[in-house]
């Protein structure tokens, strides 16, 4: 037994030394044109994003704060500026030219066509044509899912408010079948990114205990205190194929592209259901309450807090700022130590304030991170929750 144990390293040594490889410099491949565009009849303008694939040719600054008007660059991409981008229908060979959004003197690769120029309608086929300054061309085609009789532009963006108790309720959605749709996409906005699923059925049930299998640790989909949007859209085949396929990070292979001459997505959707879901839950722990304090300007500030997910040592916390619209709270509780981040909106990374404190009896005392210059209260008192 001992002889065999000591012999193994000696036997493996030649193999290890034989695996040493020389460094080889591989030339960067030519950049491809990458497109992302989803036509939607319910919006005021159609947005077409055009960029170059990343090949290591340029250094990308990935520390920028995301800007919806400069989405490619601030998300770590390389915009393809100055292209001739057009939407066409029928036998038209000229089409409507999209206007590139500019930030200062720079192009962004974000091109828009307002509804006053092209009104995208259900049941109509649209073509995309992109010509770059170096004479490359990308084309694509999509058939917008048809609408039922009585369809009105913009109706798919109007939310219906509902309340969901996470412990007891189930959100049930239903809609009519849509001609020309490949399938239906269900989406819920969460603090950990969107929860997303395709369904061939025209009805779907979303329980309060639903977990987000797209995020690390399988966190909850519904967060007490948040108002989260749940939506259903009919999508074309291009949208379905692109989003069901995978992306090889080295070469992009495996991704089902719907454009010719480049990579990416040119597709369409039709809004069917939209719910603004105010998430509630039972009060089970001392932290589950309404907390009241006064800021430096002598204004009353009210927070709703819940122990969102108990843990063996660290528990997850969620909630909302009752006195300011669209301000939500995520954080942790470890023993008496409470850390809270106030964010602007559900699906954004915009942090408004950071608070560190202690929970002692019916009080929370602590301080805010000076980087945010907040005037929030440093002492909060617990009181019985008054539900809206």
Q: Quick one: CATH class of the largest domain? A: Mainly Beta
Which structural class is indicated by helix and strand composition?
mainly beta
| Major sheet characteristics | 10 strands, mixed
Shape: globular
What is the number of helices?
3
Q: Write the H/E string, N to C.
A: HEEHEEEEEEEEEEEEEHEEEEEEEEEE
Beta-strand fraction estimate: 35-45%
Number of strand elements: 25
Q: Average pLDDT value?
A: 88
From the N-terminal CA to the C-terminal CA, the straight-line distance is 74 Å
CATH topology of the largest domain: Immunoglobulin-like
- The helix content is under 10%
Counting structural domains, the number is 3
Low-confidence parts: 1-17
Radius of gyration: 26 Å
| CATH architecture designation of the largest domain | Sandwich
């Amino acid at each position: 037994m001992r002889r065999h144990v000591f012999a193994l390293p000696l036997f493996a040594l030649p193999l290890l030394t034989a695996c040493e490889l020389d460094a080889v410099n591989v030339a960067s491949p030519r950049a491809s044109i990458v497109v992302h565009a989803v036509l939607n009849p319910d919006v005021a303008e159609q947005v077409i994003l055009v960029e170059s694939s990343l090949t290591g040719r340029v250094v990308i600054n990935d520390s920028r704060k995301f800007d919806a008007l400069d989405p490619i660059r601030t998300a770590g991409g390389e915009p393809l500026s100055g292209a001739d981008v057009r939407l066409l229908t029928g036998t038209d060979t000229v089409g409507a030219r999209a206007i590139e959004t500019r930030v200062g003197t720079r192009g962004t690769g974000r091109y828009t066509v307002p509804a006053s120029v092209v009104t995208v309608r259900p049941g109509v086929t649209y073509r995309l044509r992109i010509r770059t300054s170096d004479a490359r061309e990308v084309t694509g085609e999509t058939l917008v899912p048809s609408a039922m009789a009585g369809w009105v532009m913009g109706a798919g963006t109007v939310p219906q408010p509902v309340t969901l108790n996470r412990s007891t309720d189930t959100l049930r959605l239903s809609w009519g079948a849509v001609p020309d749709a490949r399938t239906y996409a269900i989406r819920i906005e969460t603090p950990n990114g969107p929860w997303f699923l395709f369904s061939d059925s025209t009805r779907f049930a979303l329980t309060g205990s639903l977990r987000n299998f797209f995020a690390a640790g399988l966190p909850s989909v519904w967060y007490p205190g948040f108002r989260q949007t749940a939506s259903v859209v009919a999508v074309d085949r291009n949208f379905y194929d692109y989003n069901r396929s995978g992306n090889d990070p080295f070469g992009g292979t495996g991704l089902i592209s719907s454009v010719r001459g480049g990579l990416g997505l040119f597709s369409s959707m039709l809004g069917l259901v939209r719910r603004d879901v105010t998430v509630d839950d039972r009060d089970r722990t001392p932290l589950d309450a309404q907390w009241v304090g006064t800021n430096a300007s002598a204004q009353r500030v009210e927070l709703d807090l819940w122990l969102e997910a108990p843990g063996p040592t660290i528990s997850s916390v969620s909630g909302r700022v009752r006195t300011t619209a669209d301000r939500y709270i995520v954080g942790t509780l470890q023993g008496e130590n409470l850390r809270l981040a106030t964010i602007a909106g559900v699906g954004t990374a915009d942090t408004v304030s950071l608070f560190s404190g202690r929970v002692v009896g019916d009080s929370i005392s602590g301080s805010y991170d000076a980087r945010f210059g907040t005037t929030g209260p440093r002492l909060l008192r617990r009181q019985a929750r008054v539900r809206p």
